[in-house]
Amino acid sequence: MKSFLLILAVSLSVAVHAQSDKYAAAMQKNIALLDSAKSTADLEAVSNAFTRVGDAEKTQWLPYYYAALAQTRIGWTDNKVDKDQLAEKIKALVAKAEAIEKNAELCTISNMAATQQMLVDPQSRWQTYGMEASAALEAGMKLDPNNPRLYYLQGMSVFGTPEQFGGGKDRAKPIFQKAVDLYKTFQVKPLYPNWGQKEAADMLAKCQ
Description:
This protein is mainly α. The protein has nine helices and no strands. The chain folds into two domains: 23-141; 146-208, no CATH class.
């Protein structure tokens, strides 16, 4: 009986390890595809690939995060896309991820989706989507006050806000500086988000 239980335990351990390796390989492949994507079609394809990984794994939030991140990149690069329809797709993916784990990285996605909706018509949409974007950052900072991506995105918001409304490069500069400083010490785990450092440094240089 003891021998049977030992064999069963070993078999289960091997199966779990194999499943983990398969997941890691799929994620690494798709992250590389996301980093090299050059078109809306590329981003759609890799977003769908991440979603399939998430649907298969059931307990991993990262695939849905990356699926949503790919969609936000469509929003930043494709001026023809309907930002409201896109945001609904992004929010649905974030909801799937948050059902598994709520964290600051997902708040960055929520911020970008709402920001894209707001930028369709900033004057009329600020009270809704602008506030939604700000709320996402605030929620993220409560979850992880040392996440550099939150401060990079906050800096972008302040940088793009007219000076008479509390924005401009002088006010954005210390926020970008904080992002840059946090990136220097931020510990990146395997498969976890690792974007924004160069962008934050570039924006800080623009504020000098």
